[in-house]
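Dear support,

I submitted the protein below through the web form. The confirmation email said the job was done, but the results page showed an empty box. After a refresh the structure appeared. I'm attaching both so you can tell me whether what I see now is the final result or a partial one.
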Amino acid sequence: MNDIVIEIKNLFVNFARYSALENLNLSIPGGSFVSVVGPNGAGKTTFLKVILGLLKPNQGSITILGKQTDELSPFDLGYVPQVKTLDRSFPAMPIELVSTGLKAKWPGKMKQKDKKPVMEILEKVGAGNLAKRPLNKLSGGELQRVYLARALIRKPKILVLDEPATGIDWIGENDIHKIIDDYKSEFNATIIMVTHDWEAAYHHADHVLMLNRHILCFDTPDKAFTEQCLRQTFGHVGHRHEMIFVGRHHD
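What the results page shows now:
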């Protein structure tokens, strides 16, 4: 069994009088694919910010790869934000944006030795033909491929994704998930993915974290996507999500 790569103990995050996360205890083995699901306001974004080191807990601890979050290197963590949070009007091209994943700064005149790995990763995610197209001319799916390339260029041990397929058509969504699955398989990477798509979580993850300020369930998809866990987390089981239970009989 792989070693634990993310260890969270007795973790609380509070904003003024509001508790965003309460008493989280969690151990994530290396090489896992963890989908994080929960209703709006459940603390999913806060959870990602804690992992990324952007937010310090008020109480408790988190260690990643045996380190404190402020000790992590860019080779440890890669991050793919939501497409809808990005400013498409920024005057840049994908080749420039992806290169910032190498040096964590905006490039001046790119050297050939820097262009080579950038083009290689763009090709790998199916975006080589987009290298010099303005960002504001890209579709949601194309832009998400570019941000995936930026996150993957250093081959991080842990990949963190925030709703990677939101606003993308089903063909693009399948492509994005295949890239993520292939990366996990090739590098035994750990994947942490926040998603509202329960079917994607069920079919791609090997662990599902049901979160609503507390951890209500952390288990394999078959054991997490039970009516009991869903009702505890969401308060209901909608018609769209009932299809998961129907689909199980056909897998």
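Response: this is the final, complete result; the empty box was a page-load delay. The beta strands are 4-15, 18-29, 33-37, 59-64, 77-80, 158-162, 190-194, 207-212, 214-219.
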